[in-house]
Write a structure and sequence with these properties.
With 116 residues, this protein is mainly alpha-helical. The protein has one domain. The chain has three helices and two strands. A two-stranded antiparallel sheet has the order 1-2. Strand 1 and strand 2 form a beta hairpin. Helix 1 runs parallel beside helix 3. The relative contact order is 0.17.
């Protein structure tokens, strides 16, 4: 896994945990798998989501792989470019919430390498 992606993923997971969310599980060499029902998700809604977005994707909840669709082995730069937008948007939102709760300061910056 790309080192930046892994770092971003760890940041988001740790930040969510710091904000009082449920404990998270970190993946090892392989993801631990749970069913959507085991983590409180509706499989019918996940199927609807995957049909509407197409391509390939995965849903991770609390560190468990709970739903995948499409070719998970496809490696394209378009997939990374698309995924990075969501990651950085999520990190900015988590950061804002952490600042609001006094868990960090605005001086601690999240750098979006895709920003121009």
């Amino acid at each position: 896994m790309n080192r930046r992606l892994l770092s971003a993923l760890c940041f988001v997971m740790l930040a969510a945990n710091a904000m009082g969310e449920e404990p998270v599980t970190f993946p090892d060499v392989e993801w631990e798998v749970r069913t959507p029902a085991e983590v409180g998700l509706d499989v019918a809604k996940l199927q609807e989501l995957s049909a509407s977005v197409g391509g390939a994707g995965a849903i991770v909840r609390n560190g468990y792989m709970v739903y995948t669709w499409g070719d998970q082995n496809a490696r394209t730069w378009q997939a990374w470019a698309s995924a990075s937008k969501s990651m950085f948007s999520t990190m900015r939102s988590v950061k804002a919430e952490m600042v609001k709760k006094g868990l960090t300061s605005r001086a601690d910056r999240i750098i979006d390498p895709s920003a121009t």
